[in-house]
Every structure is written in C-alpha cells, then in structure tokens.
Amino acid sequence: MEQLTLKPITKVSGSVTLPGSKSLSNRILLLAALSEGTTQVHNLLDSDDIRHMLSALAQMGVEVTLSEDKTVATVRGCAGKLNTPNEPLFLGNAGTAYRPLTAVLAATSGHFELVGEPRMEERPIGHLVDAMQALGADIEYLKNKDYPPLRIAGKAIHGGEVEIDGSISSQFLTALLMAAPLFAGDTKVTIKGELVSKPYIDITIGVMAQFGVDVINDNYQTFSVKGGQVYQSPQRIMVEGDASSASYFIAAAAIAGGEVEINGVGKNSVQGDIGFARVMEQVGAQIDWHDEKLVVRKGELKGVDIDANAIPDAAMTLATVALFAKGPTAIRNIYNWRVKETDRLAAMATELRKVGAEVVEGEDFIEITPPQTINLTDIDTYNDHRIAMCFSMVAVGGHEVIINDPGCTAKTFPTYFDTLSSISV
Ligand SMILES: O=C(O)C1=C[C@@H](OP(=O)(O)O)[C@@H](O)[C@H](O)C1
Ligand SMILES: C=C(OP(=O)(O)O)C(=O)O
C-alpha cells in the first residue's frame, strides 16, 4: 500500500483555486445529457466520481467531448432518449451518479444494470427504490434487498402522489426530483421522517431551474414538479468551486495561517458546505468574504458544539480542527456519516484516538477532546477521500503524520496533496 509522509507544516500562505464542485458537476452532466440542445460545461471536476458519470453516459450513447484538461465538457443532449448499454454501468462509489441514474433510468425506456464498488453494495438505496416502485417503476435488487446492485427495466412513469423517506440521504429525493419532469403527469412528493442534508436539495432545485424546470418546495415537506417536460439546455453553464474541498484550506489557514486566498466559492455560493466557513468563524478563524473567494487567516481556536446535519461532508474537517482548538468539540446529528464512503463516525473516532485525542463516539455524534501531545502514527483512510484530506490537518498543526493510501482522494480531489503542498511553508 502506498503511504504519504507529511512533514510538519509551520505555516500556510498563498492562493488556491478550487476544483469544480462534485455535486454540481454530476447533476449538470446528467441534466445536460437529458436535455434538448448542446451544453458547454465549464470548470467541470476531473475526478473518479465524475468519470463514472461520464462513462455511464457514454455507454448510453450520449456524446460528450472533453477539453484536454477535462474541465470543459460539451454535452450533446439526447432529449430524454438514452440507449440500452451493452454492459452494466459501473458507478464506483459515486452516490451522485448512482442515485440520480437509478431514478432517471427507471423512467427512460431501456434496460440497465447499475453496479459499483464493494462499498456501494453496503450503502442503502431502499428509500429511493421504494418511492420509485410505488410510482410503478420496475427495479429489482440483484443481491441484497435495499442495496445495490440493481436491474432496471425503464418504462413510462405516470407520476402522482408519492412519499419518500428522507432520514438517511437527501440524494434519494434529489434523484426523484430530477426524474419527475420525465414522468407523464405531475408529481407531488411528501417527505417521511426528517429530511437530512437539506442544502443539497437547494443545489438540485437550482440546477433543475437552470435547465428550465421548476420545483415547488413547500418547507422541505412537499415538493411538486410538472410532468411531461424535456430539460432545456442553458447552452453554457459554469460549475462553482467545490465548497467541501474548500473546507481543508479554510481549516489549514485557521490552524497555521499565514493568509490563504481560496478562489472558487464565496458569499454567493449555492453549496450548503459554505456554512463550514461560518462554523470556522465561531471556532476563531478570521475570514474575509468576497463574492467568489474567501481569504482566511489564523485565529485563537476554541472548541464548538454544533448540529452539522446540513454540512455532513465539511463537518468531518471540524473533527481534525478539534485537535488544535482549546476545549472539546462536539459534532451532532450526523448519523448518516455511517453510510457514506465508510462508517465515518467509527473511522474518525478510531483515527483521532490514534493521534491521542479523547473521543466519545455516539450513535449520531462525536465529541473530541484535544490531546496534550500528538502521537506520531499512520492514518488508515478506509478508501475515504475525506479521511485522508482531514488528517492532513495533523501536519498543518505542526506534527508529522503518515497517510495510508493517499490516492483515495481521487474520488473528489485527485490533486489535493499537491495543492496543500503549494501553500505550505
Ligand atoms: O447530493 C449531493 O451532491 C450530496 C449529498 C450528501 O449526501 P447525503 O444526502 O446522503 O447526506 C453529501 O454527503 C454527498 O457528498 C453529496
Ligand atoms: C458522501 C460523499 O459522497 P457520495 O456522493 O458518494 O455520497 C462524499 O463525497 O463525502
């Protein structure tokens, strides 16, 4: 296994440009593919999760041309008509590819098998399949009930009233909303349970609007979408920088600044994870907010106690910032960390204890008390890009750390360690 030794970093300073948002990139690619018209997508993320969406679209006959650096894509829309692929669609561990494709393909004529990495087969999808089956979709589990892989016989879906459980992942509702305009009639979706990760629904509704489809959101309880629509290409669309990826540089500057300019997200960001910057202000970071960039400096850091349900990805970064804050940090209402790339609550607790922190791992929370001294250790990353990136904060805090399998950042940020090194002193 590859290992990366990060030497102690005494200061970070300079400027970084964020890669495009994963959440926006995969939503935009799928809607561009389903559209009438050709869409030029700028600042597309080049990472594993996006590659899986691109190869699935190619297998279904969608023409996509990529610039040499793979950040500009020209997508020739198929106006809702996809080909039956010859092989199963392999979607890695990309939730933003697997879940939306499940709903959309169930409403598109053709036969499809959706497969993924072993971990994908442990990530639930039953709430989405239940809702689609209630609408008449023909979706079959190929191994275990409620989990991928799936076989889908696409067919006309009539729409109507449907309930969906929103308590495990917002991606199920995102998927249903993205498919709903393809249904013959109108759809009204009612949420069962408390909807998690709400800001991702705003991203979905925002992107759908850019492709000409309105969603009526009644207080995150019911959502209405008109049927019988074809997405309309906006012709040119720009992917904002990735706000979850920004979290590592915000944290690094707060711990070891220097001054770091982070280009690509700012006060106008459409991504909920920009909320991490507000949390870091509470922790003690000094942040200047611009329209499309943040400038972050170090501060006196103190532990906070937050409900992180709205920012599940960026909140992981707070767990390693906690190592360098005064007093304990609590991150609450994050049960669904357990069903992501790995069981992130268990993995974070284990690795934080290895560096010396005192950790309480609850069913849906984690409390971290910083250690007196940081142990030199290697960090297991569980094929989870965010664990690898989060634990680079140990080096940023002035302590050598060894990251096992650093290549796992390829899921969303293949150049992460080079970018961190470019601002490290
Ligand atoms: O819709 C999206 O783009 C995402 C939603 C979130 O998942 P959950 O809704 O499962 O929390 C987030 O963790 C994931 O990285 C991306
Ligand atoms: C949870 C994540 O990914 P996915 O889109 O596969 O759910 C993530 O990127 O942290």
TrEMBL record:
GO cellular component: a single term: cytoplasm
Location(s), subcellular: Cytoplasm
Location, primary (coarse class): cytoplasm
Swiss-Prot/TrEMBL catalytic activity: 3-phosphoshikimate + phosphoenolpyruvate = 5-O-(1-carboxyvinyl)-3-phosphoshikimate + phosphate
UniProt-annotated binding residues for 3-phosphoshikimate: 22-23, 27, 169-171, 197, 313, 336, 340
Source superkingdom: Bacteria
Keyword line: Amino-acid biosynthesis, Aromatic amino acid biosynthesis, Cytoplasm, Transferase
GO molecular function: 3-phosphoshikimate 1-carboxyvinyltransferase activity
Alphabetized InterPro entries for the sequence: Enolpyruvate_Tfrase_dom, Enolpyruvate_Tfrase_sf, EPSP_synthase, EPSP_synthase_CS, RNA3'P_cycl/enolpyr_Trfase_a/b
EC code: 2.5.1.19
Keyword Metal-binding: no
CDD domains documented for this protein: EPSP_synthase (cd01556)
Catalytic residues as annotated in Swiss-Prot or TrEMBL: 313 (proton acceptor)
Pathway: Metabolic intermediate biosynthesis; chorismate biosynthesis; chorismate from D-erythrose 4-phosphate and phosphoenolpyruvate: step 6/7
Binding site for phosphoenolpyruvate: 22, 95, 123, 171, 344, 386, 411
Family: Belongs to the EPSP synthase family.
Subunit-structure text: Monomer.
The protein, known as: 3-phosphoshikimate 1-carboxyvinyltransferase
Name of the gene: aroA
